[in-house]
Amino acid sequence: MSARRRRLGVSGLAVLTPVLVWLVADPMLGHRLRIINGEQTLDIGAVPVVLVALLAALAGWGLLAALERFRGRRARAVWTGVAVAVLVMSFLPLTGDGMDGGTRAALTLMHLAVAAVLIPGLRTKEGAAATPPAPSTPRTAPDGGSLGRESRGRR
User: Fold this and answer.
1) How far is CA 4 from the centre of its chain?
2) Which residues of the chain have pLDDT under 50?
3) pTM exceeds 0.70
4) In 123-133, which positions are buried (b, 16+ CB within 10 angstroms) versus exposed (e)?
């Protein structure tokens, strides 16, 4: 499987997971996800959940692709650090007023679900899952003998 196809699948799964959390919280349990700010009320439906998760997935994929192109070997380490920092910062709005505990818990689970899919899914090397390990070849000493065992006659 190509890296592009695998990352597209990871991005799709990252969009699906918070929608599943929303489905359980809102339609199934009947808890409306709502943020109230003064006189304004924001109802969180499926469309905003999909759009925000899609934006996060595409931004993460784009950043990783740019880092791989320009940073080389350290791209995944840098990207992982940025992704974890973004996850931590995404919790800051959840500390404010204007939402009840159920909404706060559902939004926290959505953030964690997206991160749990994107961070390990996007950072995986292209051929890591599809390529089997190469068979080991015996090493030879400069005189043609094996390095793993003693040569006969030399003790």
Assistant:
1) 15
2) 127-133, 149-151
3) yes
4) beeeeeeeeee
